[in-house]
Amino acid sequence: MNIVDTIEAKLSNIEDLLLDIKHKHPESSNPKNEKPLNGKELSQYLNASASTIENWRKKNIIPFIQIGSLIRYKKSEVLAALEKYQKGRRKYST
């Protein structure tokens, strides 16, 4: 077996693994289908206090969905926002 065949075989194995993950966890590949979290669920997931979550929301650091008094968060959007926020803060740190 030459190097090209070896690489193609390994790529095929990787593709199979990714498809397996996608079928076992469809929500991870399609954020539109993810269940919105309430503040308590998000604070548990992020290991942050409820007041921290509320402060981030009020400072528009994390996105949220509000219908009347009901507030929910999409995990994928929150994680992306926190990553973007953290990258922005690193630019100015010494």
What do these coordinates show?
- The chain has two domains: 1-31; 34-94, Arc Repressor Mutant, subunit A.
- It is built from five helices and two strands, in the order H-H-H-H-E-E-H.
- The chain has 94 residues and is mainly α.
- Strand 1 and strand 2 form a beta hairpin.
- The longest helix is centred in the first third of the chain and has 22 residues, at 3-24.
- Helix 3 packs across helix 4 (50-58).
- The N and C termini lie far apart (52 Å).
- 65% of the residues lie in helices and 6% in strands.
- The chain is elongated, with a radius of gyration of 19 Å.
- It has a two-stranded antiparallel sheet with strand order 1-2.
Explain briefly what this protein structure is.
This protein is mostly helical.
Number of domains: 2
Q: For the report, how would you describe the main beta sheet?
A: 2 strands, antiparallel
Return residue spans where pLDDT drops below 50 for at least 5 consecutive residues: none
CATH architecture annotation name of the largest domain: Orthogonal Bundle
Alpha-beta content class: mainly alpha
Distance between the termini: 52 Å
DSSP strand content = 5-15%
* Rounded average pLDDT: 82
Round the Cα radius of gyration to an integer and report it.
Answer: 19 Å
Number of strands: 2
Percent helix range: 55-70%
Shape: elongated
- Give the strand order of the largest sheet, numbering strands 1, 2, ... along the chain: 1-2
What is the name of the CATH topology of the largest domain?
A: Arc Repressor Mutant, subunit A
Number of helices: 5
Following the backbone from N to C, one meets helices and strands in this order, namely: HHHHEEH
Task: State the name of the first-level CATH class of the largest domain.
Answer: Mainly Alpha
